Known about the structure:
With 627 residues, this protein is an alpha+beta fold. The protein contains 22 helices and 17 strands. It folds into 3 domains: 1-44, no CATH class; 117-269 and 451-625, no CATH class; 281-339 and 375-438, Regulator of K+ conductance, C-terminal domain (Alpha-Beta Plaits), CATH 3.30.70.1450.
Amino acid sequence: MVSSTSIQSCGRAFAHGAASGRCLFAGPPVAGAGGWRRRRAPGPRRRSARTESGGLRRANETARADGEASLTEVLLDGSTAAGAVMILALVAGSGLALGSLRVRGIGLGIAGVLFAGLAFGHLGVRVDERTLEFAREFGLILFVYSIGLQVGPGFLASLRRQGLRLNLLAAAVVLLGAAMAVGLHAAGGIDAAAAVGVLSGATTNTPSLAAAQQALKQVVTDPAAREPLARLPGVGYAVAYPFGVLGIILVMLAVRAGFRISLAREREDLEHGLEAEIRRPARANLEVANPNLVGLPLEKVPLLAQSGIVVSRIHHEGTLVVPRPETRLALGDVLLAVGTREELDALRVVVGKESDLDLRAMPSAITSRRLIVTRTEASGKTIAELDFVRRYGVQITRVSRTEVELPASPGFELQYGDTVLAVGEAADIARAAAQLGDSPRSLNYPHLVPMFLGIALGILLGSWAFTLPGVPEPVHLGLAGGPLLVAIFLSRVGRIGPLVWYMPLSANYMLREVGIVLFLSAVGLRAGDVFVETLLRGPGLVWMAGGALVTVVPLAAVAGFGRAVLGLNFLTLSGLLAGSMTDPPALAFANAVAGSEGPSTAYATVYPATMILRVLTAQLFVLYLVR
Length: 627
């Protein structure tokens, strides 16, 4: 039986017009063909005949005849768990479908989910506030944590020489855009909460929007005051985003036309430059002609110990063998050495001369095989510590990490997921493979314990309070900054004891996409009821114009400086511009126009630092300007 308290509560709710068909306990249970059910209380019922068809309409008609809530109303009731999941799924599915539509190769991409959420919110679809907040925050955590795992290994490497210059230019784009957003707030009268959303949309950077909303919760502690402010960043983002996607492409086309750039010449120049910079492994067959090396152990040969050269095979006394450090040389021996071209040229001067004999083509029991590091005990160890040459007579000559091939020097530290090229006899390689793991299937399964532990550590770091000059209240890194920094650190460490901080690329992409879809769905649903009003009758057009300036001015200034003063290659410059906006559609456009993957190198170089800087900039914007 239903308690009298429940009935009285529903009665009071109807008296104030608040129940509107939501009180399911306004009458005693009655028996029916389908079992016991609650009789629906009388009251106004919102429904649209256009949303019903076929069997669904008949089911709804039957439900109405029995006085029950219709199936449509139940499934779209955002106050229930099932209804909330249904609404989020519909927003996500329709948004992803919208984002996949392309006009001349340009589409909304993942931002289509935001616009779908705005549409649902504008039509009056609601989700319980606590459920919506959980979906938004949980999606944010998944997204930034997976981003940190992805960019972490290449973060420090992106700051070397040419990378440092490109990252400084990308940082200039970020800071100029932030300065213009501050100007929109100070001189243009745009609310700070809306201005940070315009900044995120104009730069097509969703994590910065997430960081801004998280910081907003720290600054504005009064729920009544925070509620209207919390909607402004999402609305500003949605208003500025479309031109953010288009503006970067227009800047690329303007630079190409303004400087009269020949794409064929730029491609050729870039290829020559890359060949000069990248230290790709090479091979050389070197014949021992230096009498000073006769009887000398291989490990004592000058240059071998100091360089990254690996001798994988040696033709000694008519036999092809895998050399050991104690192998003594004789005149006429031929060494198959692997290293960079400069190192091999220097070794040739010491050893004697290059041989016409190709050891790789000679028939022998020696073979080569690629092995994958999937054993946690091998992760974090150097090639010298594994010492496969002395233990098994197996030489590791190359290492592939994230599809980049690297020389295998003795001090090279292996990580989980690395692929090594092992040279030796088949039985010996099999013994080495057992030490490394070599289980491709293991890469298909994510390590869930480290993942959830890493997320927990990120939340702890994000909750830690610290003070900043000029900010009256203690601040936190929040759910955007904490998991991001922890993931970057853990991905650099690779392994702590039995815990391996490795995530398969496919799992990383899945986690990241699910997270950002949940976040954008929640943001759109929350801001949808004010979006159209702001755009058509409010300051939406002013925000859109301000967003266009935030997009174009920093990009044009940095592009002009980079080309006119620094003489950057146009393909590199295009990748830099796309990376400074963390904009995959712009990168795809640049690659298509260039007819090569040249822009991708610059994009990957600046992406990690730019992503972190945009997140921090958005947080500082809110912390210092929102009151």
